[in-house]
Design brief:
The complex is a heterodimer. Chain A has two domains: 2-90; 103-136, no CATH class. Chain A is mostly helical. In chain A, strand 1 (107-108) and strand 2 form a beta hairpin. Helix content of chain A is 67%, strand content 3%. In chain A, strands 1-2 form a two-stranded antiparallel sheet. Chain A is built from four helices and two strands; from the N terminus they run αααββα. By secondary structure, chain B is mainly alpha-helical. Chain B has one domain (2-85): Helix Hairpins, CATH 1.10.287. Chain B is built from three helices and no strands. Chain B has helices at 2-26, 30-54, 60-85. Chain B starts with a helix and ends with a helix. Classes of the chains: A mainly alpha, B mainly alpha. At the A-B interface, helix 1, helix 2 and helix 3 of A face helix 1, helix 2 and helix 3 of B.
């Protein structure tokens, strides 16, 4: 019985990892690639590690694998966010069909801080005209 | 039967690794390549889980733990480098 659960979790996890790699190749933009891969790969690796928990059924191994799963669910989104932030500073182009870029004109370049003043109009054209060289 | 099953799981994971390396070679910018390496390490953790179950060796799971730690450190270091480079 538990062999079937292990097999099902393994094949579903491998399938989700395959979907993540498809998104990594087919998506048109770094940020879309990142949103496709980080979620699906986390789910796939978590399912495959859960299969090892059910297969071994040992307390020490369960604790070890649960710590791995907790660690990857905590770190993969943080790592993806750090890469996306660095890529936005680096000027990686968005997809040409992107409708709206709400971050535009809000990063103050000398200190790499996110500025959002609610009293000033958000329209990035104005910010661009005033301090075009300081904001990215 | 079990050989066919493990073969299909490992072939799915290997195909995913090949696609990740396609993005690693083609990637137009440096963050694409960093992302491809990060995802490749996650796929390697899946392969390690398959080998641990297939060979009945739970020792391999320690490798997965160390890989998770190292991939996070490497990604953060790369992101820091990319951000300071601007």
């Amino acid at each position: 019985m538990s062999m079937w659960i292990v097999a099902a979790l393994m094949i579903v996890g491998a399938f989700f990892i395959f979907i993540a790699s498809l998104g990594l190749v087919r998506m048109p933009d770094l940020f879309l690639r990142m949103s496709a891969t980080s979620k699906a790969a986390t789910l796939g690796a978590g399912l495959m590690l859960t299969a090892t928990i059910i297969y071994f059924q040992d307390f020490a191994i369960t604790i070890r694998v649960l710590s791995i799963i907790t660690f990857i669910t905590l770190t993969i989104p943080v790592a993806a966010h750090m890469i996306a932030r660095a890529a936005y500073f680096d000027g990686v182009p968005l997809w040409e069909k992107t409708e709206i870029d709400e971050l535009r004109g809000h990063y103050y370049l000398p200190t790499h801080e996110l500025e959002s003043e609610p009293d000033s109009p958000i329209g990035h054209d104005q910010v661009q005209r005033e301090e075009a060289d300081d904001f990215i | 039967m079990t050989d066919i099953f493990w073969g299909s799981v490992l072939s799915l994971l290997s195909l995913s690794l090949i696609l990740a390396f396609v993005r690693l070679v083609r990637g137009p910018s440096l963050p694409d390549r960093v992302l491809a390496l990060d995802i490749a390490i996650t796929m390697a953790m899946g392969i390690i889980a398959v080998y641990a179950v297939q060979n009945n060796q739970p020792v391999f799971l320690d490798v997965a733990l160390i890989l998770a730690l190292l991939s996070f450190l490497g990604t953060v270091a790369f992101a820091y480098y990319i951000e300071r480079r601007v």
